Amino acid sequence: MVDGLMKESIIMHGAALRFPLAWLRPRWLLVGLTCFFLVIGVQYTLKLRHSKNNSRSAFLRWRIQLDDLDAGVNVWEKHAYPNPPIMAIILKPFHDLPPRLGASLWFAFKAILALAAILGVLRLLDANPPLAPMPLVGKVLAIALCLRPMAGDLVHGNVNLLILFLIVATLLALLHGRDGLAGLFLGLGIACKLTPALFLVYFLWKRAWGVLLGATASLGLFVLLIPASFLGWHENLEYLQSWHKQMIAPFAAGVVTSEHNNQSLPGFLHRMLTDEPSFSDYDGDRRISLETHNLASLPREAVQSILLGCMAIFVLLVMRFCPAGATDRPTLQTLAEFGVIVLGMLLFCERTWKHHAVTLLLPFAVLSYGVTTPTFSRGLRWYFAATLGLTAVLMLATSTGVFDRHLDPEERFGKLAQVYGAYVWVFLLLLASMFVVLRSLPRPNSESDRNCQHQPPAQVGG
């Protein structure tokens, strides 16, 4: 009897020890992320202090433009301000503060959004029936892979973490059956930066009418009504026309930025297949070509045709692997489909800088889950691990001042890695892996999927 009591006591103490450990682990993860962002914040503060001009922070550059906007200047015409009017209105509370304080609070605001996006995605993979929950090592892996572009966007002062947060909010609302709310978040994301509009095509294919209705109402609110209440109805329409003229019309006409830091597929193809420069400078308004690295000298029209062909292939693959009109929304399936769309945003945008890649959180989370759980076969887990390893190497190769610190002052290695599209290859590798995940998972609404809803986790893809 004594032995029985001792065994029971040991079991109870073991359970009591395991519970606080399970409770502490996610909190330590949050503490670690917070410390990381604090370190980056110190780096950002030093950058602001030692900056001799406003060119080292997008936020500080925009301050000058927003000052002009307050004076009634059309900054979309004068400065080619890159975002629609609602983004200028969102930035205004930070703009009205002293420069360093405003920049620091903008940094803190985006860091909070980044934390919320990370925790939201990881929480989804924790509650993922009938599949296994995501282990701690998978969470750490996913976070580690996406921290580099996140740190870049924080230090750069741009808006991409806001877009990531709105995409994750759309995903969370969708998986909780709040289609109208998902559309509201999506519409705000499109109003702030056009690239999430690709999700409209996705939801049209999925026949998610509630999301589309919410997005339509949201666009009317954030593109027309709210900006007009701040800027005036006529002025807002004029600014929207100027924004379209500066940012949309040139891309539609085939004008693409070919410089090495453009990691979109259009920029990469124009850099490799035409005589357009990888490095250039300006003498007033005149562009001076410094270096080219093209492998062919095709006409711009031919490159545009190749690009349209790539877009068509992407659309066909989405139609093949993302079932239309599915009423069921399995978490991993939906997360992988969102991963496909954000990769399409990065690939087919007119310009994609390194810090735009914050949305890689979604495909990185899917693959990290696949590597660290028994959901997929061993062969697929090795494939996912190899993909993650190769993408990490390619992303690191674009670093300036790391591999090339002692080579020459031009930091050639990292810049040449960008010339040859290191991030483009990252996007393509991740896109292929997302389609592999989608092919391996049971199809929503299929008989096999309904039969396995109450079964224990099993391997797929074997």
Structural account:
The chain is an all-alpha fold and 462 residues long. It has a domain at 116-157 and 256-442. It is 69% helix and 2% strand. The protein has helices at 2-50, 58-70, 75-78, 85-95, 99-126, 136-156, 160-175, 179-192, 198-206, 209-231, 233-252, 265-273, 300-321, 331-348, 361-372, 378-397, 412-419, 422-440, 447-451; strands spanning 279-283, 286-291. Strands 1-2 form a two-stranded antiparallel ribbon. Strand 1 (279-283) and strand 2 (286-291) form a beta hairpin. It is globular. The N and C termini lie far apart (49 Å).
What is the CA-based Rg, rounded? 24 Å
The structural class is mainly alpha
Average pLDDT level: 86
Proportion of helical residues: 55-70%
Which runs of at least 5 residues are low in confidence (pLDDT < 50)?
Answer: 1-24, 402-407, 446-458
| Percentage of residues in DSSP E strands | under 5%
Within the largest sheet, what's the order of strands? 1-2
Task: Give a short synopsis of this structure.
The protein is mostly helical and 462 residues long. It is built from 19 helices and 2 strands.
